[in-house]
Design brief:
By secondary structure, the chain is α+β, with helices and mostly antiparallel strands. Helix content is 16%, strand content 36%. It has a domain of 136 residues: Cathepsin B, Chain A (Alpha-Beta Complex), CATH 3.90.70.10. It has five helices and 15 strands.
């Protein structure tokens, strides 16, 4: 669907993304690249209904696709609805010729992440005037091995019930809460083996999936 909103608002975010200057090999850099502004030109031009009607009349009167008018455009993918649970899936493979190769490098990720620089200025379920959309890390899935075989393990935080999260899921309400990570004990789970670990151990893992819960 092509948005007909004010073009300036369409590319505006809740927080200034240009001040991020994200570090490479970080989840912030991944999000920044995924939500960057792209220019569509040449074979990627956008079919413009308005331009087509202006030149050829109503679209249903056009007999040949060659009469359609395509134009340069800008494209940007932003978050329009901040979810109660934020799940980030890292692409850990790349093409090497005709084969797929696993990407093993470490991607840095924080305990608390602010999604505001990646949200549209009119993001739903964000209180007016808020310039932060904060999430606290509570789970990580890690994969060891190759593209052909390996083993999945998980890091999970045991924490108190987040009543605000329940309200957000059930009613879509969002209120100002604490901006610090949800307190709790981290555990590493591998099959039936479970042991407590430090937060530094969690943040040093080779994340494949990241799970965050809404704070603010």
């Amino acid at each position: 669907k092509v948005s007909t909103d004010d073009p300036e608002m369409a590319f505006r975010t809740l927080a200034n993304r240009e001040e991020l200057n994200p570090e490479e090999d970080s989840i912030h850099h991944c999000l920044y690249q995924f939500t960057r502004n792209e220019t569509l030109t040449e074979t990627n031009k956008l079919l413009c209904d308005v331009c087509t009607q202006r030149h050829c009349g109503p679209k249903n009167n056009i007999k040949s696709e060659k009469k359609y008018v395509y134009t340069n455009a800008k494209k940007q993918m932003l978050v329009s609805l901040a979810p109660p649970i934020l799940t980030l899936h890292l692409k850990r493979f790349q093409h090497a010729g005709f084969n797929l190769q696993k990407v093993n490098r470490h991607i840095k990720f924080p305990e608390v992440i602010d999604l505001a620089p990646f949200c549209t200025a009119k993001c739903k379920n964000v209180a007016e005037g808020n310039t932060k959309v904060l999430y606290s890390l509570y789970g990580v899935v890690e994969h060891s091995g190759t593209m052909r075989s390996g083993h999945y393990t998980a890091y999970v935080k045991r924490r108190a019930m987040n009543n605000h999260l329940s309200d957000l899921v059930l009613q879509g309400q969002s209120q100002a809460l604490e901006t610090e990570p949800v307190k709790g004990q981290w555990f590493h789970i591998s099959d039936t083996h479970v042991q407590p670990v430090s937060v530094s151990k969690v943040l040093g893992s080779q994340a494949y999936l990241l799970f965050y819960e809404r704070l603010l």
